[in-house]
Amino acid sequence: MTERKPASVSFESWVESQIQAAQDRGEFDNLTGAGKPIPPDSVLDGENWWVRKKMEREGLRYPNLADDIRRRIIEARSEAIAAPSAAAARAIVKRMNSEIHTHRISPPPGQPLILPLIDIDEVLGERARRNARTTD
Q: 120-135 and 65-81 are packed helices; what angle lies between their axes, rounded to 10 degrees?
């Protein structure tokens, strides 16, 4: 247990003396990361940098919700273009656009996401062009 600071000693000099005594005892020898550079800022970005670092050490993946929703939008658009019917394509786009609306109302933690809705007319047009190419 650390001794109490004497009233006659300034806080700074008392702390310095505690650090010097610990160094003399070798308590700072062989610390993890000693002599290594501080990790790049990208590792420490954000308020939960320490969580990401711990998960990295444990071999876990920190969920990136922004990338996940963007990937799902791209997949839904591709799935709608490849759908067997226009009605199926509309249902896929409607389901994804509903999820986008949900993210707009209550966004996930982190940086704000600008998520455009999937344009059903664009998807149906692309679907029609794709079907026309396959029937030629």
A: 50
Token pair listed for 53: 């670092």
Q: Which of 67, 79, 73 is nearest to 108 (CA)?
A: 67
Neighbour count for residue 123 (Cβ, 10 Å)? 22
Cα distances (Å, whole numbers) of residue 17 to 2, 11, 26, 28, 29 = 12, 10, 14, 14, 17
43-67, pLDDT tens digit by residue?
556 677 777 778 888 888 766 777 7
- Residue 48 token pair: 């939960």
Q: How far is CA 64 from CA 68, 105, 109, 110, 124, in A?
A: 6, 19, 10, 9, 30
Instruction: Output the DSSP codes for 87-102.
Output: HHHHHHHHHHHHHHHH
Contact yes or no for 126/81 (Cβ under 8 A):
yes
C-alpha to C-alpha distance for 92 and 124, rounded to whole angstroms: 12
pTM of structure: 0.53
